[in-house]
Amino acid sequence: MSRVIVVGGGLAGITAALHCADRGHEVVLLEARSRLGGATYSFTRGDLVIDTGQHVFLRCYTAYRGLLQRLGVAGSIRMQSRFRIPVLSADGRASLLHRNGFPAPAHLAPALLGYRMLTLSERIGVMRTALALRRLDPDDPELDRVSLGQWLRDRGESPRAVEALWALLAVAALNADPDEASMALATRVFRTGVLDTADSADIAIPQVPLGQLHGSAAHRALAAAGVDMRLRCRARAIRRCGAGFQVPLRESTGDSVRFADAVIVAVPHQAAAALVADLPVAGARAWQQLSAAPIINVHVLYDRPVTHLDMAAVLDSPVQWVFDRTAIAGAPRGQYLALSQSAAHEHIHTRTEDLRELFLPALQRIFPRARQAAVLDFFVTREPRATFRQAPGTAAVRPPARTGVPGLVLAGAWTATGWPDTTEGAVVSGARAAEAVDLDLRSQRGVEVTA
């Protein structure tokens, strides 16, 4: 039996470990934190269970949904029967993006033609642009050389159409403004996530905290699969040792060394580059070009309900997206709202007091009932490195699972999955990494491998 070390206990590492165990390998999972789940986790604040960020996903996230099924928590999500997003404006206007029961691409026609945030001519232009998007190939390297914003301007989209529709969806999906977002990744988002099939964009929202959905559930599933989980255990390097590898570790009980036939590196790109620095991995220095993009989440607990909506997108306001987290967080009274703010470069270092002065009046303009409500709590969670910077040119930098060193494989949403930095991309990468390791190990043992 071959031993595989998986470095990193996020979604990519969890997936890789489960798939390697399924293939009969002895698996050791190393995680520096005291919990599994990576960037998706929860903490308590008073009576509330808080997620660091609001994670929603789409019906087209088939790999991620498969992982939730494997973890036994597929019943802990709520999927829309049909795509539906209320869109609010600070001036009191409201509209609805939704699909009908028609097949693609007619499923979105009523939503786009009836979208009151745009003029009639802008709506017609948006329809034409959507049809043009369906003809693009997200794997075309030429698309990664331009930004979404530039492509939309070349199509004749107005600044308002870009702001009120395309950016509304793209900023949340890519954690980047249109002028900073790769057109290749935007094409993946809009084609796979919205345009290609009628139900692909139906939105799912977890109904339990992420620590329960990912961390606790993964711990149970990995234990059942026989994976040796080592928490509070940090890999310091990865070095060749004969035909295999040695991994120096730092644990709470002291330093040690683990040996393995193969290693899957499932940590963020900056950490991955440092871990493989002693090995001939081509392109590792270039991973730094992926950089990072921040997300902040603004959390507000009111003493009474201020909206009946469980989710809404917002225009002409500092607020981007707002979610009602009251029941999920276990709030005993009032209403708890979480604001998800992507591409938050201007706010990531802003003082909480200043953000309070910005966002509370903004919420009062969106939800008039908030003007009479008392704020019981206000706080901010910050993710300075929430995703890699999904800018034009990143496709050439994102590495494949294989490193060129037999038995050393990469996983993570930052690798060349073809997906943006999402839960789907993370899970896809973990599955591919496990497959690559299995093929390497079988080849070393002289087992016939077929494509």
Automatic annotation (TrEMBL):
Q: Which residues form the signal peptide?
A: none
* Sequence ranges assigned to domain Amine oxidase in this UniProt record: 11-437
Note one Pfam family from the annotation. Answer: Amino_oxidase
Q: Which domain of life is it from?
A: Bacteria
Name the Gene Ontology molecular function terms of this record. oxidoreductase activity
User: Membrane-spanning regions, if any?
Assistant: none
Task: Name it.
Answer: Phytoene dehydrogenase
Q: Which organism is it from?
A: Saccharopolyspora thermophila
Phylogenetic classification of the source organism: Bacteria, Bacillati, Actinomycetota, Actinomycetes, Pseudonocardiales
